[in-house]
Amino acid sequence: MRFTRRLCTLAFIAAAALIAPACSQQQTSAPTEVVLVAYDAFTPQEGIFDAFTQETGVKVRIVTAGDTGTMVSKAILTAGNPEGDVMWGIDNTFLSRAENAGVLESYEPVDEGDICVNYDKNWFATRKITPPTTFEDLVKPDYAGLLVTQDPTASSPGLGFLLATIAHFGENDWQNFWEDLVDNGTKIVSDWTTAYTVEFSGSSGKGKYPLVVSYGSSPPAEVVYSATPVTEPPTAVVESTCFRQTEYVGVLRGTPNRDIARKLVDYLLDTPFQESMPLTLFVFPTDPKATLPKVFTDFAVRPDTPLVIEPDDIEKNRDAWLDAWRAIAL
Amino acid sequence: MHGSMHGERLPSDEKPPMNIDAVSRTARRLQVLPVLLLAVFFAAPVASMVIRFVRFDSLVDTLTDSSVRGVWWFTFWQATASTAATLAVGIPLTWAVSRHSFFGSRFVTAVVTVPFFMPAVVIATGVKGILPGQPTLGILWAHVVFNVAVVVRVLGPRWSLMDPTMEDTAADLGARPTRVFTTVVFPYISTALRNATAIVFVFCFTSYGVIAILGGISRRTVESEVFIQAVRLGDMRTAISLSLIQAVVVFLVFLIGTRNGRADTTDETNNRGDGRVRNHDIAVMQRSITRRNRRRVTSAAFIPAAFVATPLVAVVIRSFVVEGAPSLDGYRWLFDGTTERVGVDSFRVVTISLVFAAACTMLTVVAATIIAFARNTTRTVSALTALPLVVSAVTLGLGIIVTFDSSPFDWRGHTWLIPVIHAVVALPLAVRTLDGAVDAIPDSVRMAAASLGAGPWRTWLRIELPLVRPALARAAGLSAAVSIGEFGATSFLSRSNSTTVPIAISQLMGHPGTVLPQAAFALAALCVLMFTLVFAATV
Q: B115-135 pLDDT, tens per residue?
């Protein structure tokens, strides 16, 4: 029909007019709101920003969308014309990518934690087997078919564990280790939720695998979110496998509200907010003055010498490492 | 084509002018609105991603990359097998519930519709609990569970309009049931069946959540590859190229699958020629079951329904079991403020989902009604509405951010975008649900009304609209379900205090400890129960 065709043309012209860049207006008056862009799991303590609003007269609006990877991808697409003023939670595995794309004006570490192998204490105790203590243990026949981990191409703890093995064994040997790990019956699933809440025997899913790749702060979370009050977590951490994950907070490049954004960053780095993080986000504060809750000092693990790889090295080698990993694991 | 066809509708692209009345003319003009909706909120974002990232060599690289070949093969293979399985389960079920009225038929329809809005993680967890260590079977099962609703909703309205005397006559003349089906029933429902098949195929082809959870790491679809390339590896060129190729391939499959769309809808059978039209003759041609066919009808309804419901039942049971003992704690944690500590305010989440669903449904139903009553003779508009089915959520979601990024169109993070995007995603289904029903209104009805002096608008309001009311209700139910269940595109939109149910469920699942995953199961189970009731009461 001619008419239909005509109205389609019309519609597409209208659409094209929308794509065409319209001139953006610079905000001149003082802002009443500052927008904090964060990943989905950013769930700060309720009312924690009231003090900030009282002090500055500016409200904090939190905008979330997806996991860290999604957030960074979106930030790269909108670099220079950001969705908000401050970004929470780019980690060391994504930092260089964001930096290269000019996402942030400035950034500082805001929290840290570790990705470590966790184990089901009860499983090992009832079988009178000593839990593994090193990477090397994981490929021994005693521990065959016990570990579940995540696909590093799709999951951030999965990537952390792969990077941990690379940091530990070095560029030449990590692939041999992974061949042995796969031969030893390691199960690889697509995401943390499947690994921890379905396949792992020590948590809600009561799965079959007593070893799982998770976080150094998972044991205190097991205590806080236990069905019945417990004094001890059912899980513990294999400390030598921990890979340090640092998250950053920064001012987004192109924000019209730079001053208030800067103030919000300072607020997030200040002791009151830092002390609220362990029990809401299950991460360690970077502020050395912040005191930790008891459940954290008792059960969370933060090794003094964790495995680390510089963000630059991660960004440079990630594709090659993942390709090599896929060749071994698939 | 079908040489035996006669009657008012001709099997060609041209219809006699008498079919186009004032209503259709107005509807055709109004079609600019749904087309504009699609152009602004779908075509523009996708186009801007393609313009930004796709180059000739990126397409060539993507096509020649050998590691992607296995992904294509698995995607095609699982989509074909899943579609076949869905039809095998869905057709008998549709026959039972659309051709017969019996106790429990509404309940059955409701039960099979529920999975449609469930987040993949819930169904996949249910399936996984029952079929551990069977990834391929698990994927097929989950796809059947998700998509049987499409068969029932798209095929059902058409099938329910078929006059049972047609089958009876054929049977009286000595045709065996299989022959009755192939020569009488199949031609009548073939368009709707093809539509349903094409939609199911597209859904299975572009499936992401089910594959990610059940498929493990070695079974990947094009859709999951797009996600990984774009979000995890940051390679937008490969991601968007792959997504474009997928869209073209799937769209072609879809167009071929639904090729003779309008042309082979033949309605002479409903035209009695006596000018007397009784509402129940046209609206729904159901019969109550007789003693003779009771067993057949009930087994055709309840066996597939059980097949679909099992993972749901598993989820409901799981929501009442805490650490191996029966308990209501999951529900308590959902509403006593526990989940608010991780940002999930259950009342708010449910309310927001319902508000979005209402907005999406209104938008979708109005748009679909306009398109259906325009009685288009070409397939341009219909094909346009199918586009959102074939483009990956990643591409649409990211496209929206780069498109609406400057004033006065800086809509990023605006809450109203969510129901609008839901409407874009739901429109293809709603259009296909309504189209068939509007097509099935015999022209004699309108002619009879006209000869009695009713104007076209009066005829539309008093006769045609009531006739398609069941289809309108189905389209509305489907749109609401799409809105409540949509995860892909929603998860890419920036949200501020507007968490929807599926996103809340997946957020709660993603925590250590017993409490939060248990609350997630309680929320999922509440949805199962609530929506079974709502669907059973309304649709």
A: 876 777 778 878 877 877 788
